[in-house]
Amino acid sequence: MASLTDQNLFYYCLLSHFLMSPATIISLRFIQAPYGKHYHAGWGPTLSPPLAWFLMESPTIWLTLLILPFGQHRSNPKALTLISVFLLHYIHRTFIYPIRLHKTSLQRSKSANRVPVSIALMAFSYNLLNAYLQARWVSHYANYSELVNWLFWGRFLVGLGIFFCGMRINVQSDMELLALKGKDGGYKIPKGGWFESVSCPNYFGEIVEWFGWTFMTWSLAGLGFFLYTCANLVPRAHANHRWYLEKFGEDYPKSRKAVIPFVY
């Protein structure tokens, strides 16, 4: 069983996770993280995007693998199945996406490719918190009682289907955006697929992914992650949508929403 100190740590981290969502929504009303389309100088030292993405996403791999062996469910097939799904997303985000981004970055202007160290550190810190919560819940605090065996697998399969639908949208949209980048670093209007419905289907896909994860885990840890994902990505998508409209004017499809098809 977990010690009282460990239980307190988990509780306060979980509470902090929920409190971060409204704070993030409020802050993003006034400022956008200066990377990608919103990059501008004045945020101190910078990193190349591939290195930044690798460093700030890496805690979800190494911290998860460090925490897993110390949980009471470390050898439970249900826990191992759940954590494998979580790691699947972050193996792509930590290793595969930065490699693809590096190939594109070589063709683009240096200034447009930078990520402030301060932004990378904030993302790194968040991923430390979230990796701890998800891994500790799955490996230790979850209830895998055989009395609800059918219920677990039923929720898992539904959530897994939602998760993979979201991941497919997320990955395909990211790859389409990378393919659009010109050698001069210029931007073009994305077309086809989910881009016909929303300006940021990559964000929509990630939101769907973590909704599926929440359904799979049926936990406050998963719910906190989903809510924070929405709090972070929905305002970012709105800013990107506005950026597209300002840059391309009448050429940009007015029927597109920012991130949620037919809604927002």
Write a compact overview of the structure shown:
With 264 residues, the protein is an all-alpha fold.
Characterise this structure.
With 264 residues, the protein is mostly helical. Helices cover 66% and strands 2% of the residues. The chain has eight helices and two strands; from the N terminus they run αβαααβαααα. The chain has helices spanning 4-28, 49-57, 59-67, 77-105, 117-141, 149-180, 201-217, 220-248; strands spanning 46-47, 115-116. The chain has a two-stranded antiparallel ribbon. Helix 4 runs antiparallel to helix 5. The longest helix is centred in the middle third of the chain and has 32 residues, at 149-180. The chain is globular. The model has no long low-confidence stretch (mean pLDDT 91).
Main-sheet strand order equals 1-2
Number of discrete helical segments: 8
Shape: globular
Class by SSE composition: mainly alpha
Helix content: 55-70%
Order of helix and strand elements from N to C terminus: HEHHHEHHHH
